[in-house]
Amino acid sequence: SQRVTYKTFRQYRVLGKGGFGEVCACQVRATGKMYACKKLEKKRIKKRKGENMVLIEKQILQKVNSRFVVSLAYSYATKDSLCLVLTIMNGGDLKFHIYNMGVEAGFDLERAVFYSAEVACGLECLHNLGIVYRDCKPENILLDDHGHVRISDLGLAVEIPEGDLVRGRVGTVGYMAPEVIDNEKYTFSPDWFSFGCLVYEMIEGQAPFRARKEKVKREEVDRRVKEQAETYSDKFSDDAKSICQQLLAKRPQDRLGCSAGRHGAEVVKQHSFFSSIKWKRLEAGMCTPPFMPDPHAVYAKDVLDIEQFSTVKGVNLDTNDDQFYQRFNTGSVSIPWQREMIETKCYEELNVFGPGNTPTNDLRMDLPPPPEKRGCFNFTRKKRR
């Protein structure tokens, strides 16, 4: 119930940058728990009319509680920024690993299958809540310290009421489904197309419709997505080629997972590409990842290479913005907060009747020790002035 402010945390090094500001490591002073703090600059939000997008991301993150999607633990505001305190993912993103960590780009099939399975579980969680993600790509899939992956950056996600359709030409060029490019109505089909692009890129070492660093106009990439069939090298097994072909079908009605609505993940998970996955163990976090990040390595661009944000000019904040800030600045999120208390053993320390302190009829055990036996701490109340 305590108010959460910037003083709740210690701030550490910059980890990267987002659309509205930088992302840095932070630590809760009271418990020592590490998180990632995503800072959204107020003036930058206002200049780009991003209030609705920022609020939707915060509200969606608050609803999701999955080991395959980054969790929101706290949200608070400073004078200049709105801050989302999220699960820290020290292992870098899949794009970095695909292109920078091997002799040649891409993963072996075992690793691609494992990451694909965990991402499919993340999409399943979102779809079950009626949320379409709309931005599934390697940059948005992050590794934790143990080698598990989570979906991040839900800025383009939207909640679809039961039985409704949405429309919106949003996403990343080369990963957007044909129905998104054509601005048609849809439900969850774009996520399965983008997921197909992700699986393809992990195996091939390049995206299906645009080579890495290829200079090509957006219109040409969109044309390829809508009209051109992807090609497959000998890196693909029969099962890998099969699932990619079914996920990258141009028409939603022909695409794997799209006929089952919110339950499309169940169909995708039954594909023979995932025959080695024991789903119950994976969902419980009991499967050993094929790659373990080195705790001493930094799996990201050099911080010095991260572009500095320019100063936003010509934008003034006023009292009309306060209502939006109040809806954003809601403090701690209950389930991640409870998990933090358990993981950091704070709950045991706060619990009067913890191990060895079973209640008795001796009422004196509930009383605090006298001041002289409290070490360097003095708990006596100050007199009111």
From TrEMBL:
> What are the UniProt keywords, alphabetically?
ATP-binding, Kinase, Nucleotide-binding, Phosphoprotein, Serine/threonine-protein kinase, Transferase
The record's comment on protein family reads: Belongs to the protein kinase superfamily. AGC Ser/Thr protein kinase family. GPRK subfamily.
Task: List the active-site residues.
Answer: 135
Task: Supply the enzyme class, top level.
Answer: transferase
Reaction(s) the record says it catalyses: [G-protein-coupled receptor] + ATP = [G-protein-coupled receptor]-phosphate + ADP + H(+)
Q: Which residues are the signal sequence here?
A: none
- GO molecular function list: ATP binding; G protein-coupled receptor kinase activity
The source's domain of life comes to: Eukaryota
User: Which terms does the UniProt entry file under GO BP?
Assistant: regulation of signal transduction; signal transduction
* Annotated protein name in UniProt: G protein-coupled receptor kinase
Q: Where is the AGC-kinase C-terminal domain?
A: 275-340
Q: Which Pfam families match?
A: Pkinase
Can you quote a single GO CC term? cytoplasm
Enumerate the residues binding ATP: 47
Q: Which InterPro entries match?
A: AGC-kinase_C (IPR000961), GPCR_kinase (IPR000239), Kinase-like_dom_sf (IPR011009), Prot_kinase_dom (IPR000719), Protein_kinase_ATP_BS (IPR017441)
CDD domains associated with the record: STKc_GRK4_like
The question of whether tRNA processing is a record keyword is answered with no
Residue intervals of the Protein kinase domain: 9-274
